[in-house]
Every structure is written in C-alpha cells, then in structure tokens.
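Good day; I would like, with your permission, to put a structural problem before you. A protein sequence and the structure tokens that stand for its backbone fold form the material at issue. I would ask you to consider whether the tokens describe a fold that such a sequence might reasonably adopt. I set the record out below, with my sincere thanks for your time.
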Amino acid sequence: MQAAIEVLTKPLAVLHCAQLLEIHNSIPHVTWDAQDLLADSNGDRVFIDKWSHSRVAFDRLGRHPMAMMIAYARAPWAAFGERSLYLHRGAVLGECRRKGVGRMLFEHYTTAHCKPDGLEWITLQTNAEPSNAWVVEFYEDLGFERGQLVVYEDKTDYLMHKRWV
C-alpha cells in the first residue's frame, strides 16, 4: 500500500483531528480527545519539538490519514538515562494494518536523514501483555530492543530502544 509521509504540524493535526483521533484511539488502554492530541505538554512533561518530529502517513491522494506517530525529544528519565526521540503514540488505521504502512512510518524514523541533532536513541513504550506480543515482535523486527519494564497502575509496558544507524 502506498503512502505519503509528512510532518504532522499542529495546523495539519487540527484539520484532520477527527481522523487522527480515530486512528489513535485504536491503541489499547489509551483514549485521547482533541485537547490531548493538540497538547504541547502533559503535567510536568513537555513534548519538546513535537510538531517537527511527529508524522502522518496519508493515502496516495493525500486526503486521508492512514497512520500517525506523535514523537518528541525526551530528556533522560528514570527508565532511560539518555536523551532520545520518543515515539509517544503510533497507530495505523484498522483497514490499513498489515499492509506495510506502519513499517514504512517506523522505517522513516530509523533512517539517518530523520535523525535530530544530538539524539542518538529512539525510544518507545508498548504494552507488555501477552496479547500485544505481535506488536513487541514488530518493534524487534525493526531493530528495537526490550529494556526495562515500566509499571503503571493499570498496565505494564516494555521500554524499547534503538540506536540510530
């Protein structure tokens, strides 16, 4: 399936808000509204350069979002002691799954031309439930390694990381 990957700017997110929320809210255990999607921070966490690091994959006509990735530069934290590009929320529209769109979006991030200055790592978290094993395997196929477990009140995630090429 062909897709065009573009920088997800804030104006573009506003324009396609309903479609992006539909894509995002297919992620288990998380639900966003427009305010969450458009936020530049959450509590004391600032989403550094979110609107220059986030991406959207459009259909070949450029009209409909098929996948999205919210990403930002993240300072070192307890679970990962290095600065990284944190892939915060990534999802593919249900009808576009298993057609290469998600892989294309992730491969966009793992190429050297997408590497922000001063960041050597890409990190992400994903649910550690057995039902999510296929997602963990997908990330491992892309070269991510499992790090420590991050425990929340309602779930446990794997912190996964990859050094840029």
About this structure: Strands lie at 4-7, 41-42, 45-46, 55-58, 65-74, 84-92, 121-127, 145-151, 156-163. The chain has one domain: 4-163. The two ends are 26 Å apart (CA to CA). Helices lie at 10-15, 17-24, 34-38, 50-53, 101-110, 133-141.
